[in-house]
Specification:
2 copies of one chain form a homodimer. Chain A contains 7 helices and 9 strands. The first copy, chain A, is α/β, with parallel strands linked by helices. A 9-stranded mixed sheet of chain A has the order 3-1-2-4-5-6-7-8-9. At the A-B interface, strand 1, helix 6, strand 9 and helix 7 of A face strand 1, helix 6, strand 9 and helix 7 of B.
């Protein structure tokens, strides 16, 4: 809704910007659309770069290297902070998203946001651990099911190692699985059986490129199917079925 | 979806039924549609009788005394339990709803369900305290805003007393406010300011008697308005905006 005006980096400062971060977009105040903070007012900072190539990615502008190179601003943590609203006026939750923000060194940004009174949530697929992840307030790990094309043995091993590390660091994550079909649901059952103590959110996926009405029709049909299937599924009885509320409210537009 | 077959009470057992409870419907397995357990597989037990008469009540079959008298079954706690599925097959969450279940003595039922391994959630408007409320796993209090016609000084005093009692008993509730309009939102701001430590869910209300398409259109428009308003509202920055997910999945049909 309120996409804040992009910050323009001053020319000729590249040498001083070794710690600068590739920012695709900063938007908000808006409302988190899915997962454990669904419905909560928040700002989003979307970083460029991803180690996955999910077939249904809804943020390719933060993934495709050519697009990222052409469009990402290089911002210091303080510059990112300066683009968020004054704390007394708006949300106090900042969601760091991507791409995969865990490819970057965001510890300095997390500490800065904490010092200013913000809570920090991170969304990552759980492929690469970074020590700063143990310091955020909410670590949302969204493993990718078969329909993404990324559910390989290698990625399951990376996820297992990531989640073990998170537990060792005393930073239990919340799992969020995007569900397009029965194969994704079977993947979610594997998550539920393998990490029974972690909260598991199931979120209906949205196909890319559909018109507004068809997107809505598909989302509602998928939600109904998912509710009716999970209600009867003992393995998933502690999962929570949800949908992409931002798509319900605003469709598939960017920056909301 | 799967409305379990109603239990038929044997005739001539009325004298032994002094502890029997007026049950309007038992349904499930389904998925909780709103509030802190939104999306979680659950059974619902809806009890008859209510001390409120909200203009937008979506469960008048559990409120109108004539309908309740004519349709409620009188069931013992063990009979209610017997209508829920075998624990190994389905949800382990039972939601006690109404009407206002806090008008009844449900302590024996709560203990029975706990002994059998169920979690118990209760939904009440917070008008009358009962000691058994301190023993449930999730106490969801849904105070009624101005659009309900029930936002009087008297009811605010009852709510204040109820929430104080819950806190004294070490049973902090979760607040869920149904929002139809700006006046309801102002009421929600009062809740947020008065009980800043309680989690506050905001759930879009659904008008009664609309057709399926109009219900959906209204719900989505209200959700968008609510998201855009709350995102910019400092008082509500810790609230969580949601909708009635069961209406999205199944429309306004009963028993889902």
């Amino acid at each position: 809704m309120n996409v804040l005006a992009p910050h323009k980096a001053a020319p000729g400062t590249d040498r001083a910007r070794s710690a600068a971060l590739p920012v695709i977009e900063i938007f908000g105040p808006t409302v988190q659309g899915e997962g454990p903070d669904m419905g909560r007012p928040a700002y989003f900072v979307r970083f460029g770069g991803c180690d996955f190539r999910c077939t249904w990615c809804d943020s390719m502008h933060a993934v495709d290297p050519a697009i990222v190179r052409a469009t990402a601003q290089r911002l210091e943590p303080a510059e990112i902070r300066s683009q968020l609203g004054a704390l007394q006026d708006g949300p106090d939750l900042v969601v760091l998203s991507g791409g995969n923000p865990a490819l970057l060194e965001l510890g300095q940004l997390v500490d800065l946001l904490h010092n200013e009174g913000f809570e920090v949530a991170v969304e990552t697929q759980g492929s690469r651990w970074k020590p700063w992840l143990a310091r955020v307030d909410r670590l949302v790990v969204s493993p990718k099911g078969p329909s993404s094309g990324m559910d390989s043995d290698t990625n399951r091993r990376s996820l297992t190692s990531f989640l073990q590390r998170a537990e060792d660091e005393g930073a239990p994550p919340v799992l969020k699985a995007v569900i397009f079909d029965e194969a994704d649901l079977e993947h979610a059952r594997w998550l539920a059986l393998t990490w029974p103590t972690l909260t598991l959110h199931l979120s209906t996926g949205t196909d890319i490129g559909l018109g507004e009405q068809e997107t809505l029709r598909q989302l509602l049909a998928r939600l109904r199917w998912l509710c009716e299937t999970v209600a009867l599924d003992r393995t998933l009885r502690h999962a929570q079925v949800g949908t992409q509320q931002h798509v319900l409210a605003w469709g598939t537009r960017r920056g909301v």
